[in-house]
Amino acid sequence: MFYSLYDFELFSNFTFFLEDPINGDQIRQYEDRRIFGMESSWNKSSYLGAVSTEYQIGLGLRNDVINDNQLSRTKNRTETLSRIQYGDVNENNIYTFANAEIDFGKWLLQPGMRLDFFKFNYIDNLSVVYEKLSETAVAVSPKFNINYNLNNNVQLFAKSGIGFHSNDSRVVLNQQGRSALPLAYGLDLGAVVKPTKRMFVNVALWYLFLEQEFVYVGDEGIVEPSGRSRRMGIDLGVRCQLNNWLFVNGDVNYAKPRSIDNPEGERLIPLAPTMTATAGLSIQRKKLSINLQTRYLADRTANENNSIEAKGYIITNLNTTYRFGAVNLGISIENLFDQQWNETQFATESRLAFETSSTEEIHFTPGTPLFAKGIVKYNF
């Protein structure tokens, strides 16, 4: 069981003076959100000769109550010029699921099923006439995994499943329930290999098809459906213990994301990663712990035709601790080599106050520069 309560308020300006050349395009996003949920499951084991089976059946619910969900055009953070979105959202999700693991020794089968019921409710406070809009939707999500132990050092697997994306309640109601729970179809084929006693390697080919890709439009306060998409790629991971105290790890991921419904030449998916990687070195002595981790994100397109590019980065972090009895002293360093990098990036059309025409270019949030903090921990 869980309960969450928070207030959200954010002022931003994506387009500067594009829409309002006098006051500017500052917007205010605000909401008061309460989330309540719970989940309960029943587990059972059974045996039939050499075949063992694990069963799991569960039931859960989640309720999101969002009051005063609003997007307003503002000036100097103090004056509200107009409201674009203003209303109350109440979204309910009730679900049930069933999973099983059937172990035949060399073969392990994992069938599963999940059933979701959603109810989307919205009260538009900008409407002259009070009206509570409501829609319902149901999603059925089966999955089936197969694992085969070729020998003690090699395991082959095939994993498949259907999932969904829960859309913005306001968009669901505006479209009379269409694209409320667009489905996602996934498939993984791969292997887990232990070449040596101290090395672990996993590799997988994967495919993902989405019935609907979504793009958040911040200055309109909605999530915009943008058509079908597919992604395919390969993942490679390595874990190795070089000796009793030195460990290395690495992961490389390549993906080819494409929009299906866009015309030829405009099928790239803005900001979708194509290449990512991580690598690390870890030293674990009796009292000393040192962890060096590097992450990489390749350059990627920021729009559909690749005329604007979002720059990638390589960032390295260092964490080290030393134990003196019950006291641990440490230091954590982010961006060890003080690289200049962009964290949030997106292509948007904007215009400055003195410009006569707009320009489409990269807008970004600078990444964290070299940053260090000390750590003191006492264990009772």
Report how far the terminal alpha carbons are from each other: 30 Å
Secondary structure category: mainly beta
Q: How many helices in DSSP terms?
A: 1
Strand content of the residues, in percent? over 45%
Radius of gyration: 25 Å
Helicity range: under 10%
* Low-pLDDT residue spans: none
Arrangement of strands in the largest sheet: 1-2-3-4-5-6-7-8-9-12-13-14-15-18-19-22
Would you report the number of β strands?
Answer: 22
For the largest beta-sheet, the strand count, sense and barrel status come to:
16 strands, antiparallel
Q: Specify the overall morphology.
A: globular
Whole-number mean pLDDT: 94
Encode the helix/strand succession as letters. Answer: EEEEEEEHEEEEEEEEEEEEEEE
Any overview of this molecule?
This protein is mostly beta strands. Helix content is 2%, strand content 68%. The chain is built from 1 helix and 22 strands. The protein has one helix spanning 169-174; strands spanning 2-12, 27-48, 51-75, 79-103, 107-124, 132-151, 154-164, 183-193, 199-210, 214-217, 222-225, 229-241, 246-259, 275-284, 288-297, 300-301, 309-310, 313-324, 327-334, 342-350, 359-366, 371-378. A 16-stranded antiparallel sheet has the order 1-2-3-4-5-6-7-8-9-12-13-14-15-18-19-22. The chain has a two-stranded antiparallel sheet with strand order 10-11. A hairpin with a 7-residue loop joins β16 and β17 (309-310). The longest helix has 6 residues, at 169-174. The radius of gyration is 25 Å and the shape is globular. The mean pLDDT is 94.
